[in-house]
Design brief:
The chain is mainly alpha-helical. It has two domains: 42 residues, no CATH class; 37 residues, no CATH class. 56% of the residues lie in helices and 0% in strands.
C-alpha cells in the first residue's frame, strides 16, 4: 500500500511474513506506505522464482536466435503463460 492505495493483489500469510521475510506483522498492519515482498522485488515464493527462471531462459533462447512464436506454441509454455 502507498497512501492507502492497494498496488498489487499478492497475499502473504502472517507466518510467511514473520518466518521467511522476518517482518513484524503487527507493525506493518498500521503502515500506509508498506510494500509487499513482491513489490519490493524480494519475493522468492515458488511462483516468482519459476517466473524469473522462465524469463531468464526465454531471454537466452532469444539471444541465441530462437523465435518467440515457436516458443509460445510449445505445450509447456502454453500452460505456463496461461497461469500468469
Amino acid at each position: 500500500m502507498i497512501g492507502g492505495q492497494l498496488l498489487c493483489l499478492k497475499k502473504y500469510c502472517n507466518s510467511c511474513l514473520t518466518k521467511i521475510y522476518d517482518l513484524n506483522v503487527e507493525e506493518i498492519k498500521g503502515k500506509d506506505d508498506w510494500l509487499c515482498p513482491y513489490c519490493q522485488g524480494v519475493c522468492f515464493c515458488v511462483r516468482c522464482v519459476r517466473h524469473d527462471k522462465l524469463n531468464k531462459y526465454t531471454n537466452m533462447y532469444l539471444v541465441f536466435g530462437g523465435n518467440i512464436d515457436d516458443l509460445k506454441r510449445n505445450e509447456f509454455s502454453h500452460i505456463y503463460y496461461s497461469n500468469i
